[in-house]
Amino acid sequence: MHTHRHTHNCPALFSGRASRIYDVVARRFVRRMYRRIADDLVGALPRNADVLDVGTGPGVLLVELATRRPDLRLTGIDLSDDMIALAQRNTREFGDRVSARVANVVDLPFADGSFDVVTTSLSSHHWDDPAAAVPELARVLHPGGRFYDYDLPFAPFDVLADTARERGVLAGEPLRRGKFRNGVPLLPCVRQVMTA
Ligand SMILES: C[S@@+](CC[C@H](N)C(=O)[O-])C[C@H]1O[C@@H](n2cnc3c(N)ncnc32)[C@H](O)[C@@H]1O
C-alpha cells in the first residue's frame, strides 16, 4: 500500500471561470516557473523531438518550449476541455507544430513510441490513479525516451517510481529525483526523471 498525500483531480478548479483565472495566473504571475522548466528541458531534447505535456492546463509550458525550439513538435493533453480550449488559444501562433486535445493520462490516444520526451508540471498530484498512468507513459515513449515530472513535494513520486519498478517499465538509467528551483516563492518544486 502506498501512502502519500495528493488531492486528486478537482474539476471545479480547472473549468469555467476558474480555468480562466488559472490561465491569467499562469501566463502573468507564475511565468518564471514555465521558463525555468523549459530551460531545463530544452538541453535534453534532441532535434525535431516529439514532446508530450500531460495535464498541460492552459499550455504555458508548450508556449515556452515552442518559443525556444522551432524544431519541436509539441502536444498537450488535459482532462479539462476548458483548459484545452485555452491551450489551443495560447498556442495558436505556432500553427500545427503545437496541438492540444482532451485526454486522460491513463488512456493516452497515441501510438506506442510516439514521443521522445513526456513532461508534466503541477499535474501528477491531481491524477486519480497515478499507478495506472505509469504503463501508459512508458508505452507512448520510445525506448530511451524520458519522463520529466515537475510537481509539489507531496506529489505521488513514490507511487510512480514503485509502480515502474514493479512493472519493469521506465527502468532505464537510475531514476533521478531532486529539488527543482522554479523561481517562484512559496511554490516548492521537485523534479523526477525516469527513462524508458
Ligand atoms: C494545476 S493544473 C497544471 C496545469 C499546467 N501543467 C501548469 O503547470 O500550469 C493540473 C492540470 O492537470 C489536469 N489533470 C488532472 N488529472 C488529469 C488526468 N488524469 N489526465 C490529464 N490531465 C489531468 C487538470 O485538468 C489540470 O488542468
Write the layout of secondary structure elements.
Blueprint: H1 16-29, H2 31-42, E1 50-54, H3 60-68, E2 73-78, H4 81-90, E3 98-102, E4 115-121, H5 130-140, E5 141-151, H6 157-167, E6 172-179, E7 190-195
Parallel strand pairs: 1-2, 1-4, 2-3, 4-5
Antiparallel strand pairs: 5-7, 6-7
Q: What ligand species are in this complex?
A: S-adenosylmethionine
Strand order of the largest sheet: 3-2-1-4-5-7-6
Biggest beta-sheet profile: 7 strands, mixed
- What characteristic shape results from the CA principal axes? globular
Number of contiguous helices = 6
Low-confidence stretches: 1-6
Separation of termini? 24 Å
Strand content: 15-25%
Question: What are the secondary-structure elements, in order, as H or E?
Answer: HHEHEHEEHEHEE
Derived from helix and strand composition plus strand pairing, the structural class reads alpha/beta
Strand segment count: 7
Radius of gyration in whole Å, from Cα?
15 Å
Helix content: 25-40%
Please state the average pLDDT score: 94
